[in-house]
Amino acid sequence: MLDRPGGFAQSASGPHQARQNVYVGYQKAGGQSEEQAQWHLLPFLTPPEKAETAYLGENAPPVPEPGEEPWRALQPEQFERTLGAASDTWRADENRFGFSLLSPCDRVPDPRTLEHEQARRLLAPVVTGWIEYDNRDGSEPVQLMFGLGNPDRSMCPLEDNGSSLAGFTAGPAYGYATSPESGAVMRQGFDVFAPKFQDQRGLHVIGGETALVFTVPAGEKKRFPLALGFYVQGTVSTGIRAAYAYTRWFSDLEDVLAHGLEHFAHYEQLAQVRDRELETSGLDEDQRFLLAQSIHSYQGNTELLWNDDGPLWIVNEGEYRMINTFDLTVDHLFYELDWHPWAVRDTLDLFVKRYSYTDRLMDADGTRLPGGISFTHDMGVMDHFTPQGYSSYECDHLTGCFSHMTMEQLLNWVLTAVTYAEKANDLDWLQRNQETLLACAESMHLRDHQDPAQRNGILKFDSERCGDGGAEITTYDSLDVSLGQARNNLYLAVKTLGAWILLEQAFNRLNLTEQAADARDTADLLAQSVAAQFEPDTGFFPAVFEKGNRSRILPAVEGFVYPLYLGLEEATDKGGRFSELLSLLSQHISQALQPGVCLDAKTNGWKISSTSNNTWFSKIALSQHVIRRLFPEAMNAAAKGGDRVHADWQRLPGCGSNAMCDQIISTTGVTCGSRYYPRGVTAWLWLSETDAPLSNGVSPSASLAASNHG
Fold first, then answer.
1. Confidence category of residue 6, pLDDT binned at 50, 70, 90
2. CB–CB of 463/404 below 8 Å?
3. Pick from 410, 563, 551, 562: nearest CA to 489
4. Is beta strand 71-73 parallel, antiparallel or unpaired with respect to 39-41?
5. Any alpha helices (H) in 309-370, and if so which ranges?
6. Structural domains in the chain?
7. pTM of the model
8. DSSP label of 625
9. What is the pLDDT of residues 663-677, one digit of tens each?
């Protein structure tokens, strides 16, 4: 975050929880003494506190006046930032100075199968980096600094732990280091720019300011390696007790830091490969930025734990930190299946084992009816797993945010399960879950109507869990009724259609001929039911099929992403089985993508609902993919300009200081929620829209990656 502290944080709800000054920059003497020369720092800090005042009282030196500090923060026009898929690089001083953090990765096989060294390489809780200066044209040495001001926690020189590495750790939890060959000088005290108090080593461990200082001689260019590591031992979760998986392969923080430096060349090369793949993917500059920003935020939200049952995968829901929110799992699906498909499978299994329940339905007169299986919204929050069959989010007697998402999560299990089984070619898993799939199909029928003769495929009942006066909602919980209400909702109806299409595919795989025919018939009926809601006089579908609703929504097409992703051409052929519905959706989307409807009249950003200025980037990205693939005729010039608008939203402080933000006010570009959010990786789908070859000769969507180090 510019002009704010940053630093280390673990299991955090966002960058704001890292409250440490980060000192990254260079000092050129220019004929002055080192004490007189000013440090030029990247703006990752605020003026450090003068902690010595607590010790010296009235004898403390005066606080420097503005402009008299021994450092100055570089201004935006004085540096350039390049965000890659696996790197974050900053350059200044006419590109002579450079600093980069690297978070590279590779495909991660099932952790149960990993050999020791393979696990260490893939799952090390370390971020590597480098700092450099090109002083080949210089006549005097240049000094570089990487440091941390940590007022909340004292730091220990690594040498005090018997390590040969130069660096500091905050207890056993986190720290940074460089190799002894770098010649780095360690500084610690109340002030790292001009230390006043020094012990026999030149340090003062009482002080919370630490740094490594490197020297680049005149006439030389040097790059110095950095390792930033984390380590937390023991149980870190409740409800289900588990530890971080990396503790199985690393003994302590020093082991992590040493590993990062020993394998620095490997991680640097891997980061270059990942960056190059994104750079040559065929996406434009704004799309590449959006995807890179999304990958970094997704990566920061992941954890791999280990308990008595083996690996336990967690994706935290950004600032909210809910565990494996199913609304996100179904959208992370496309990314995760390319890089760690076992995580999708394990999450589905845990939903069945611990977070499924048998539901009843509420009729309009309060009568309770059979409902069938469904699943919770999430598995818990902040490393606490909630009791069996219950989420941390869902509450009773509500009609809006925090109500139950019973139908939404039922569809999410079907869509995620069948997509996983198809993409991973895991027929064995599909067979083991046959009964669950059958139960899901029955539950979907019952939520339409108890009487088969009165079914049209559309949800008409709320879960009993909503309670008297309550009503089910969708994942779009903070929007108005256009996307928030589950019953008779266009978005949810088309998503249900996608689920029946996938169930037909799964039942055919399982040789369940009767059930496959029923799924096919239901999909056909549902498509006709939705098509019948089209309004020829307006050229739109209403967002909700009741009470004269006139909202227009883009996620009307969302349900088609699953057959599209799996290559089920019969379902996506505009001249085939669902030709009528697809033709009407084309008209709907073409008219929706107009300024003042689902393009913001002020910014031209995409709005997921015409009647709400709260728009979600992850869902924009998903709708963009479906529209560009199925309805390219709707992509007018204004709609095509949306990527620049969306990227600028994320670049500006209103969003950018919070990493990838999902909920954004379309008129201002300022976030209103879902900060530090992982779901932006739905943009991963964009890579399948380009045929640009990569260095290894495969498609971008099968090659580019970033994964979990947590």
1. confident
2. yes
3. 551
4. parallel
5. 326-339, 341-353
6. 15-275 (no CATH), 280-702 (1.50.10.10)
7. 0.94
8. H
9. 999 999 999 999 999
CA distance 585 to 638: 19
CA distances from 635 to 289, 603, 628, 630 (A): 21, 17, 7, 11
| CA–CA dist 272, 265 (Å, integer) | 11
Contact between 274 and 86 under an 8 Å Cβ cutoff? The reply is yes
Interatomic CA distance for residues 251 and 162, integer angstroms: 15
Q: HSE on the CB side for 457, CA within 13 Å?
A: 26
Distance (Å, whole) CA 312 – CA 350: 9
pLDDT tens sequence across 298-338: 999 999 999 999 999 999 999 999 999 999 999 999 999 99
Distance CA 502, CA 341 (A): 18
CA distances from 421 to 346, 370, 506 (A): 12, 29, 8
CA–CA separation, 417 vs 505, rounded Å?
12
Which two structure tokens, joined as six digits, stand for 279?
Answer: 């750079």
Q: Which residues contact 491 (CB under 8 A, 6 or more apart)?
A: 474, 476, 483, 543, 553, 555, 556, 558, 559
Report in angstroms the alpha-carbon separations of 313 from 85, 270, 347, 348, 351: 22, 24, 7, 11, 12
- Local structure of 97: helix, strand or coil: strand
Q: How far apart are CA 123 and CA 111, in angstroms?
A: 9
The total of other beta-carbon atoms located within 10 Å of residue 194's CB is: 12
Measuring CA to CA, which residue among 682, 560, 565 is closest to residue 616?
Answer: 682
Residue type, 461: F
